[in-house]
Amino acid sequence: MSATAFQRRRRERIKAMREEAEKQLQKTDYSDKTKEELKAILDEKGIAYDARAKKEDLIKLLEGAE
Fold it and tell me: Which are the contacts of 23, defined by CB distance < 8 A and separation ≥ 6?
């Protein structure tokens, strides 16, 4: 592997690591939201849910979609 290819690969790996770290920081804490707010977020994302679902179930749906 040439030095140029090595440096390019190194930069790509660093960029991927930074993006992954940003995703981890951006995870939303849904526990402080109301049930109605959670339903609105699910509607925006187009995720189907049971209208009678508990708050914990709605949070699991949202976390599974991330």
Answer: none
C-alpha atoms less than 13 angstroms from C-alpha of 46 in its C-beta half-sphere? 0
H helix runs in the chain, sequence order: 3-26, 35-45, 55-65
Closest alpha carbon to 65 in 50, 44, 51, 34: 44
For the chain, the structural domain boundaries read 3-65
pLDDT at 46 over 80: yes
13 three-class SS: helix
pTM score, whole prediction = 0.58
